[in-house]
């Protein structure tokens, strides 16, 4: 391994991850991408999904990402996401409530329901649950 | 001269008021700290965002997004007015509202219609009183805990309305937090997006042109088209954060002044009370002495 690349995951509310990683794999809109140190400058949009990385000790870690951007420079990867959570920080209670809320909203036939938003919320909740339940 | 009892009641009343203002001052102080922390947490995101956006904008042409193109004829504008829900914060809201009033008047004179989206009760009440059309209102946001999603929702609506040609320009009026003692109302045009000057300058300062050889996925234009609406949300969020911080700072100063004023009043009332007490004691003594003298005969 040539060395580690700096990984920063920032959201408007907090900095979620700031550490060295051996490899970073992220969910790009045009497909998953992997980044090692010395990567060509690269900019992409991200879709809802999981960011995987191996930290300096080779331990694989997972971060939930809702849409955002990633910028890779030779020595640094910056992820700008609207929301991001490490897998161990996912609050199952909250997610389940969000899931229920979204399902109820989708099931109701009221005209003032924003289906687009409800569907997005549903997707986010499902994804979080799936991520939290896969234990490697 | 006021009677002893009257003065005493007044002193107690002022002291009670002082307790309240002092408590409000302390609450505002702790909330201010929270708001400032949020601003600090947001800064890295905002900076990085502006950085990437600025360099992208340089590369992309003007036609990259309809959000960049100014309308030839401006008929209707949309103002997002951020004020607080509650009063007792000095001139904070009245400054913001007078800024909005001046702006609205200016635009009305050019026969441009002005519509509002309100954050905060004070601004909404003003809009109602003056008969402005309110598109949307959000109470309980400024000065409280709020997440990025509220900025996303409002920002997206503003972008949609702009694209549907419901209005031709979008402005935001908020309070800029300069220091604990200084918050000034500011006005910013967010749509159509004006060329990013500051980041261009920044890029020039750097030795190597930043992002020059970035591979973009999807294309630069598409990326920019995706990022520009988000930039509106980022700006909105930052305006909301600044207004919240300013509100708490303004309330803190106002309450500090009120506490000081209470102290002054208590001092002067105590003086009056003591004088009155002294006077009544002297009068009593005179009576007794006078009576004793009379008995001696």
Low-pLDDT ranges of chain B: 198-209
Portion in strands of chain A: over 45%
Radius of gyration of chain A, whole Å: 16 Å
Structural class of chain A comes to alpha+beta
Intertermini distance of chain B: 34 Å
Keywords for this entry:
heterodimer; A: 136 residues; alpha+beta; ATP Synthase, domain 1; Single alpha-helices involved in coiled-coils or other helix-helix interfaces; 2 domains; 7 strands; 46% strand; elongated; B: 297 residues; alpha/beta; Pyruvate Kinase, Chain: A, domain 1; 5-stranded mixed β-sheet; 6 strands
Quick overview of this protein structure:
The two termini of chain A are 23 Å apart. Chain A has helices at 92-107, 115-133, and strands spanning 5-10, 15-28, 31-35, 42-46, 49-55, 60-73, 76-86.
Task: Please give the structural blueprint.
The complex is a heterodimer of chains A (136) and B (297).
Chain A: E1 5-10, E2 15-28, E3 31-35, E4 42-46, E5 49-55, E6 60-73, E7 76-86, H1 92-107, H2 115-133
Helix pairs in contact in A: 1-2
Chain B: H1 4-59, E1 76-82, H2 92-109, E2 113-119, H3 121-129, E3 133-138, H4 148-163, E4 169-179, E5 182-191, H5 197-205, E6 215-217, H6 220-296
Parallel strand pairs in B: 1-2, 1-4, 2-3
Antiparallel strand pairs in B: 4-5
Helix pairs in contact in B: 1-5, 1-6, 4-6
Give structural notes.
The complex is a heterodimer of chains A (136) and B (297). Chain A is α+β, with helices and mostly antiparallel strands and 136 residues long. Chain A has 2 helices and 7 strands, in the order E-E-E-E-E-E-E-H-H. Chain A has 2 domains: 84 residues, Sandwich (ATP Synthase, domain 1); 44 residues, ATP synthase delta/epsilon subunit, C-terminal domain (Single alpha-helices involved in coiled-coils or other helix-helix interfaces, Up-down Bundle), CATH 1.20.5. A 5-stranded mixed β-barrel of chain A has the order 1-2-5-6-7. Chain A starts with a strand and ends with a helix. In chain B, a hairpin with a 2-residue loop joins strand 4 and strand 5. With 297 residues, chain B is α/β, with parallel strands linked by helices. Chain B has a 5-stranded mixed β-sheet, sandwiched between helices. The longest helix of chain B is centred in the C-terminal third of the chain and has 77 residues. About 4% of the residues of chain B have low confidence.
